[in-house]
Amino acid sequence: MSLTRIRVHLLLVACLAVLPDQIARAENWPGWRGPHRNGVTSDTGVPTTWSATENVLWKMPLPGIGTSNPVVWGDKVFVTASEGRDQGELHVICFDRDTGRERWHQRLWGTAPTLFYGRSGMASPSPVTDGKRLFAFFGTGDVFCFDLDGGLLWQRAIADEYGPFENRFAAASSPLLFEDKLIVQCDHYGASYVLALDQQTGANRWKSDRPEVWLSWSSPQLVPSGDRVELVLCGSEKLDGYDPRTGSRLWTVRGLARECVPTPLFGHGMLFVVSGPNGTHLAIKPGGSGDITDSHVVWKNDRGTSFVPSAILVGERYYLADDKGIGSCLDAHTGKLIWKKRFGDKFTASPVAADGKLFFTNEAGSTLVLDATQAGYEEVARNDIGEEVYASPAISQGKLFLRTAKNLVCVGMKLAPR
Amino acid sequence: MKWIAGCLMLVGLVRIGGLAPPDDPGPQLAVIAKTGPQGEGSAAAKVARDQLAKQGVEVLPQLLVAMDTTNAVAANWYRTVYEEIVARELARDVTKWPVEFFKEYVSDAKRAGRPRRLVLGLLDKLEPAFRAKWLPTRLDDSEFRYEAVGLALSAGDRALQDKDPSSAKAAFRKAFESARDSTQVTQAAAKLKSLGEPAEVAQHLGLVTEWWLVGAFDAPQKTGFAKIFEPEVNVDLQAKYRDQGGTEIVWKRHHETDTLGQLDLNKQLGTTREAVGYAYSEIDVPRAQAAQVRCGADDNCSVWLNGEKVFARDQWLNGTRFDRFIAPIQLKSGRNTLLVKICQGPQHKDPEVPNNWSLQLRLCDEQGRGIAFKPAQMP
Fold it and tell me: Which of A281, A294, A364, B54 could form a cystine bridge with A301, CB 3.0-4.6 A?
């Protein structure tokens, strides 16, 4: 072995020695609310200060409208959007993480556009990826599967197969991946259901009808419960637990709002669910069967609930900014209020967290950064991107991706020139 | 050998110029046409798509004809081919585009609207002056009507600014007659009326505004949808019933004056909850015809035409949105009867949510133009 080759090997070993740490600090953001579907990532090195010009690595215009969060896998960033008078023109776009260059852009037709919210159109659901395929669900009742180079692999026009969605603000539920299935919650004014699709072919693995369920915009969640995994769906004044392998319903908790938007969280062995406005926060032990309202609810708090933004759980504390901009922090174990603050402006985006910091982005485009390691309210910074923001941010590989009303903005530390 | 090389070069140049006959795309198009529910046919469609995408613009006419399909999945597979070829060829400056085919295709109102719109977008790049000349002529084209009416409204506004009321009236009249979108209809009507011209929105949209009303019948919680009250069994405008409180109630005549025919039952029958009201109308239609009933109600409605139930939806806490529900109907020549049941549910647990009780209903053709009818002369 030559000296040069030995040097190369030593360098490789040195790289491998630090790699686990690097991996731990550079996660992907593969779908709605990140790697653990709760807004929290182990990523580090994310800037805590920025402005419309400071720490902006790149900014790319987006077509149409949408509030789906950006999805990041490796050096690719994926965004969905819709446009047109009926928002039936759908976009799935892949940007280069480091430069913002558009790598590919698929334009498709949505099968059955519905009424919609003027900021999100048909592109409220966030796409999701496993690193091999990208799955995109739209309010038009379509699911598309692409390879990561933009090649269409399959499409399901479920609005054609099971009837058009009837929705005031277009469907907003972000699908999730479980084993070899893609789970899509389709709650609407008509016949509601939840589907598990084969990731490879798009065919149904199971379909579970939800005849008693009305319109909701919440996203499904997976929770461990003993030796099983449960699929949790909010909607129509209740929370249902399902077996994600079969679609059979396991349990129900009553007491949610009629129309649910936020996504449940899991932590400390409990499910945290919020629905509002004028609704309630619930902490629930998953498991059981039938109506578990009286047996599994650990705590309940009727104050400060949100209609759209989801909550976030960091350590022992549960944080939320409601739609009107009132922030609150509860003890995750008891539901007791720790602090309450007026954050300012309105909120649609859900908070994210990394590196001991919480990021709350309001509709005006200002992100409030809080220190999550402190027991009390500890403001780190307020950063104004200079544009309206309705989509939840994504954090990946030391960068924060803000989808503004018109652009995708990559915020990160600029490397000093050599 | 030089002449062989020369021929090959010539073939290459011709292909680049888009003049070469295409490899027959029929088999690949047929494979994609077989895609359907459950992701069926996707793997084969992917192969066919990739092969088609290698072709030049000469394949676009056949591709566009294939895109004129009701198969939503196949249409998107075709579209990915179209987008790839168009993006690639636009980057060249030697492509010979089938522009005349594109113009014929985009002007064929019988074809599916979405691929026609794609082609119009491409024509914007190939022949930028085309749209401005072509679009104002599309007043009877269901895909482009909205934009054409918008242009007619703008032309009317410009004529007004130029102090040319005669041209303005003509433009607004054209917009009004062609419009099917309720907002455009009301806009055009308002413009005409401001110029002293008649324009009947209710007639144009086929809104039913002459009603006989009775209620509120007692229907605790959400029982009203299924519970059958006397008017459903027999409409007798002279009959007397008991309301929720036991008070005698009778049918009363009502003419709705709301521009879009929205009937507020809280005003007409009294503010209440957990109740049922009925609206009845008779209309005279000049000829038998297929039509649509388009309706919306808060909380919900059931509709009977000539004694036959033609629409019902068991939903609660809905808003009354224009054309929310559409059901096909068959009107007979002469007198037709309409009975509508409107349910009012419990108050939402959030006291800030208004407890609306309302109905909006119209009769129109598939394009949304109101059916010509007259309210029947009734005692």
Answer: A281
Task: Return all residues near B154 (Cβ < 8 A) that are at least 6 apart.
Answer: none
Cβ neighbours for B190, distance < 8 A, ≥ 6 positions apart: none
Give the per-residue pLDDT at A236: 87
For A338-380, how does the pLDDT look when each residue is reduced to its tens digit (9 = 90+)? 999 999 899 999 999 999 999 999 999 999 999 999 989 999 9
Q: What is the pLDDT of residue B8?
A: 40
Please report the number of interchain residue pairs, chain A to chain B, with beta-carbon separation below 8 angstroms: 70
Site from A105, A107, A114 to mutate, B interface, most B CB atoms within 10 angstroms? A107
Its CATH architecture, for the domain B210-375, is: Sandwich (2.60)
Q: Would you call B108 an interface residue with chain A, using a CB distance cutoff of 8 Å?
A: no
Q: Contact B135/B151 with Cβ under 8 angstroms?
A: yes
Q: Choose the mutation target among B35, B40, B42 for the interface with A, i.e. most A CBs under 10 Å.
A: B42
- Residue A17 tokens read as 């020695």
Chain A residues whose beta carbon lies within 8 Å of the beta carbon of residue B352: 278
Beta carbons of A154 and B39 less than 8 Å apart: yes
Domain ranges of chain A: 227-308
pLDDT for A187-242, tens place per residue? 998 899 999 999 999 999 999 999 989 889 999 999 999 999 999 999 989 999 99
Domain boundaries, chain B: 2-137, 145-199, 210-375
Is B348's Cβ below 8 Å from some Cβ in A? Answer: yes
Q: Closest by alpha carbon to A230, among A205, A186, A283, A266?
A: A266
Nearest partner of B21 among B58, B49, B63, judged by Cα: B58
pLDDT for residue B378? 67
